[in-house]
Amino acid sequence: MTSLDRVLVTGGAGFVGSHAVEYYAERGADVTALDNLSRVETLETADESRNTAAYNWEHISENYPEVTLVEADIRDENRLEDIVEGHDAIVHTAGQVAVTASIQDPRTDFEVNAEGTFNVLEAARTAESDPAIVIASTNKVYGDNVNEIPVREEETRYWYDDPEYVEGVPESLSIDDCEHTPYGVSKLAADLYVQDYAERNEVDAAAFRMSCIYGTRQFGNEDQGWVAHFALSTLRDEPLTIFGDGKQVRDVLYVKDLIRAYDAFLSNPSGKPAVYNIGGGKNNTTSLLEFLDLLEEKTGKRTDISFDEWREGDQKVYVSDISRARNKLDWEPEVDFEEGIERFLNWYETK
């Protein structure tokens, strides 16, 4: 493992990005955080009270004054080239983050997620400093193939009913011959470019296909970040809408564990695979209904719930098979879901 000296984080004011900034700043790296601070404008259900970018931008500037804050857009390839030069690692988390927004405006979704990632890869390829890259991909790249895996219905959740998926979804699940969403397609295009550049030795790069990431400084909303959305709505006594029946299951990963996985690749990328399914794995799962029960146990509150139709592109069960990350990166989740939620609730009460 090598320590990184100069790290660029795109989307540095975002939820995941700000934790990457914090991680490397605390280890003495020279960190640049790049963000266009657009989240509230691009997410229909993100109001100013849940302005992740503004909150995290201020958090970084106050707590890590040595971090260089750059307001810029990954779609500006010329400026990006200038910013990338000199860094030895890039954590690329900038992106359009919501399926709903991608359906309403697929062109912007493509320009940010696909073309923006291409710009990052090209800037890295031509940079004399030769940075390694991790990108925040998504389980949505598998499209509706996820829903072809047999599931059974239990009292409070769905679960896989095929022994082949006892560990969860592996990286080898097909991405073809199924329905996708614009968001899934744009992220998949970015993901494939990463694999191509890595396979041709243009850059050291890996795509991390993330399941449900949660943690402190996350302001979720109905479009994205459902763990934080449910927790904040409960704490604020705001009504919640569940799309579907609430038995859908996700594996959940605390954000600091995600950043450790990123770092395990960036610190020693040679010979490593270019794709990882990353999440809490089979030992860290919850359904929506089960999470509401956990929130009630922790807070003594249960907000008003209503149900609506399933949303396009939703998955009844998605659990990551994290075997590759475990074997190739020597990585395991360290924070279990109950502890992670306690950290989130404590952060919110004291922020």
Automatic annotation (TrEMBL):
Domain NAD-dependent epimerase/dehydratase: 7-279
Domain of life: Archaea
Pfam families from the UniProt entry: Epimerase (PF01370)
Matches recorded under InterPro entries: Epimerase_deHydtase (IPR001509), NAD(P)-bd_dom_sf (IPR036291)
PANTHER family: DTDP-D-GLUCOSE 4,6-DEHYDRATASE-RELATED
Family in the record: Belongs to the NAD(P)-dependent epimerase/dehydratase family.
Entry protein name: GDP-mannose 4,6-dehydratase
